[in-house]
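Could you help me review a protein record that somebody else here produced? What it holds is a sequence and that sequence's fold in token form. I have pasted the whole thing underneath without changing anything:
=====
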Amino acid sequence: MKDKIISKATELFLKLGFKSVTMDDIACEMCISKKTIYKYFCNKEILIAESTEILHKEVHEMIDTIVARNHNAIEENFEIRKMFKEMFNVVDTSPIYQLKKHYLEIYKQVLSREINQCDECFRANIAKGIEQNLYRKDLNVEAYAKFYYTLIFSISENTQSEKEAQRLELEALEYHTRAMATLSGIAELEKQLQNPNIL
């Protein structure tokens, strides 16, 4: 039952917002009593914390699946962006923006987890791109990974509209890729940008 509550709560939080969804809403959606929810979660903050932790794991499992498909480094980044776009397409307000505004302590925990994982992910992508001659060999991998996640997190935590955040994140991805790309990399980037479903 606990897993079912987390699953339904996560769905509602992403669709309607962390602030607006109440324990009553979750109970009503699941046709259970609020007492049943409180048996597992003594307050909404704990439910949000556990929901974001599960979501974090699911997102990174999906990223690992994309990486395992062995796309080239640039295509890999566009596939990961597409996965995020599909996952958060029903959301009006950026989830990270909501957390920062209404649940700062949970947001700090999420940010700490995400920065560590993103740093690892971005470094691996840059190393792969260098190996594939899509990114320049003289790059400072640590600095470029840091530039990119700083840019991405700044967009998601300061942009209320999820659609606007996605548009800016695409601009950031293009900016990041152009800054690192070889001529072969630029050609691959242009190819990815031609996708009609990109926005």
